[in-house]
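Suppose you are handed only these lines of text.
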Amino acid sequence: MAIRNVVKIGDDVLRKRCREVTEFDEKLGAILDDMKETMIYADGVGLAGPQIGLLRRIAVISPDGEDFYELVNPVITEQSGKQLCREGCLSVPGANGEVERPQKITVKAFDRHGKPFTLKAEGFLANICCHEIDHLDGILFIDKMRPFGK
Ligand code: NI
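From them, the structure of the protein bound to nickel (II) ion can be written out as follows.
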């Protein structure tokens, strides 16, 4: 495994739509391992493909540093409720703001071996999933945030 360089705002790779993963091979597993290691090293709760310069629909998530999720080709199929989330991003150093997100979501995705699964998430986990899936479409939280107290 290796710690990857985290791409920062200003790099075009953060603004592009990522392609679906079609090869569920060892290379994909190695990339996901690197992403997990990089996320832990950077003390983040999530990391998406473009953040290590890869335009692939992949993300790793850990709300608490103990539970880990890998999402390949994730799609939000259901959402309900609203929550106001305080967000930051490893690719946007120094910025924080509030973003409105759904309270509950259902995500359909694949694991690293190509097996489909469904993740039902709410609260903070739903928040992170939405943030990371936005990255896969070139969307950053600063596009949606509002300043505190407004
Ligand atoms: Ni981010």
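What can we learn from it? The chain has two helices and seven strands. Strands lie at 46-48, 58-61, 69-80, 83-87, 97-101, 104-110, 116-122.
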